[in-house]
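Researcher: I'm preparing a figure for a lab meeting and need a structural model of a single chain. I don't have an experimental structure, so a prediction will have to do for now. The sequence is pasted below. Please return the structure as tokens so I can convert it later.
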Amino acid sequence: HRFFFFFSRNMEKLPRIGLHNIRNLEGATKKAVRVGRGRGSGRGKQSGRGHKGQHARNTVALGFTGGQTPIFQTTPKHGFKNPNRLEYVPINLEKISAWVETGRLDKAKVIDIKALWDSKAVTGNARNGVKLLGVGAESFKIPINIEVTRASQSAIQAVEAAGGSVSVVWRNSLALRAHLKPHKFEVIPKTAAPPPRLAPYYEKFATRNHH
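Model: Understood. Here is the structure written out token by token.
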């Protein structure tokens, strides 16, 4: 309390800090060494690098270990990571059931990816879409119409058994971004056709009830 009393009594006497008198503390900045400006400076001629060689020329590559076999070549590699793999954000039936029961999702409307995104049912990087999974299929009894990127067979059977429907729609990254955040687009882009390696899945899903 004495400090605050002293500070309040002497605040007007303390120096004011402004742009005209503010400065760095001593030692906060260091003057750069100018090299190659004459022998008298001690950093002239070869600029402190010596004569020739890779250190004088700054040509040591990243990961170079002196001419021996690099560690990335001697270390064994295991497994394979597919660069073309598409990872979807998963959503389970039990979570959808909980969201509908608490009023976060409206079962009277089509539950698409935007509805799932806006209700925080799915989070994270959804640039490839959302996949519906069948966790909680045994107790799922809510008739809903849901639209996702992909769906497992158990999830489809559970939704249809409850009186609902599942539709899968392919959207590329641009179309999915426009679907989730339409306010950022002056013109909504058209949805591109699925790539050839994914087209059979969507064609088979579209004709599965017409046999």
